[in-house]
Design a protein that fits this description.
The chain contains 10 helices and 2 strands. By secondary structure, it is mainly alpha-helical. The chain has 2 domains: 189 residues, Rhomboid-like (Rhomboid-like fold), CATH 1.20.1540.10; 32 residues. Strands 1-2 form a two-stranded antiparallel sheet.
Length: 242
């Protein structure tokens, strides 16, 4: 059941994160002339590029870049908060930082900016988590994400001008990895489901086709018959010996 608190979180946190992205990007566009992107973009394999692991998803090259990332970021982060109300802060942090670290270590020697890597990581986490967790709700959101965002896989192909395809590919890998890492950490509804299943198993003992001791009784009967036959044989031998 969707609580009022969770509903507030579903609306508040995705909008707040997107607002921060917009504020930083617009400031960089109009007031700083791209200086933030230059200094705080993700410069691969350079010490100066380490701040970009955190800052680069907040920076964009222009309005088309910002707008193309805004809607999928808002919807996917909303799905994350809705379906994983306990886990989402750790998952979001893991995806944000993990994607940045992978791009810093493995990306081309260019400056990477934009939230698209985090968007791909969110989509991959939501898609793969349902597979790894085998929870009905998680599987439903997996199917929804695959249906609406399956076409994003084209973005991982190299050779696209002006697109950090490495951020897309490594974000996808990071999302799948996070889905596997968090597979054993259950949400409240999963814990409640397991508790009810355990109670149901205790309340209804397993029924057997035959009595549980059917074969034990047969064995005992055979042993008793063998005993009496042996006793009768001894009596017969004793009688003949006289």
């Amino acid at each position: 059941m969707l609580s009022k608190r969770n509903l507030r979180n579903v609306i508040r946190w995705p909008l707040l994160l997107l607002a921060i992205i917009w504020i930083v990007s617009v400031l960089d566009f109009y007031l700083l002339g791209g200086a933030l992107s230059y200094y705080y973009g993700l410069h691969t394999r350079q010490l100066a590029g380490l701040p970009g692991i955190i800052a680069s998803p907040l920076l964009h090259s222009g309005w088309p870049h910002l707008l193309s990332n805004s809607f999928p970021f808002l919807t996917l982060s909303g799905l994350l908060v809705f379906f994983y109300p306990r886990l989402w802060p750790r998952v979001m942090t893991t995806l944000w930082l993990g994607t940045g670290v992978l791009v810093w270590a493995l990306g081309r020697s260019v400056t990477h900016i934009g939230a698209s890597g985090v968007v791909y990581a969110l989509a991959a986490f939501l898609a793969f988590s349902g597979i790894f967790r085998r929870d009905f709700r998680a599987v439903v959101v997996s199917l929804v994400v695959l249906f609406y965002y399956g076409g994003m896989v084209v973005g991982i192909l190299p050779g696209q001008e002006g697109i950090s395809w490495e951020s897309h590919l490594l974000g996808l890998i990071m999302g799948a990895l996070a889905g596997w890492l968090f597979r054993g950490e259950m949400e409240d509804h999963e814990l409640e489901t397991k508790r009810k299943e355990a109670e149901r198993r205790r309340a209804s003992p397993k029924e057997h086709f035959l009595d549980a001791d059917a074969f034990t009784k047969t064995k005992q009967e055979r042993e008793q018959e063998a005993f009496w036959k042996k006793l009768e044989k001894l009596r017969e031998e004793d009688r003949l010996s006289r």
